[in-house]
User: Fold this.
Amino acid sequence: MGRFFSAIYDHLMASTEKAGLGERRRTLLASAKGDVLEIGAGTGANLAYYGPGVGTLTLTEPEKPMLRRLEKRTQQATSSSAPIVLRAPAEDLPFQDDTFDTVVSTLALCTVDDQPRALREIRRVLRPGGRLLFIEHVRSDDAKAARLQDRMHGINHFMGSGCNCNRPTLDTIRSTGFTVTDLDHGELDKAPPWVRPLIAGTATA
Assistant:
């Protein structure tokens, strides 16, 4: 399933990217600075949006099929600016404490096995005052929409290669010690209704 999902992922997301997700990525990642870590980098959808403020870029991806596609995409970068690509889960990041200025998570916290642990790891590797930049689809605040998400969770988890469509991710970000300093609620346009509720913003460690 992972190999098939990775093969169709970019095509699956194309209309959503064009309908606004790509612009959200551009806006968010314009503020990525210093030593940057992106977790769950997938096929490398964010690569085109990192700006000159990035000093070093490290990409982690736990799934082998996605990792292969990510490596192919990063090979186009010059040797002096090529990102470091590693296979690693967000719950067990192979970095020392206080290593990064910025951590990026876009549509990744929905699939980690242990979301609180992943966020604690992110906070651990961030330097004091470092920032988490995030775009995540989340559990809806609307009770009716949330019930639909609960009903669709099983099939979404299977078809989406482990994606959980009903996680209260914003609550988890806050409960693991982050201070949310910028937040926008929106939708993933052109996506199925049960994965549309969206948050995007910045949290400080």
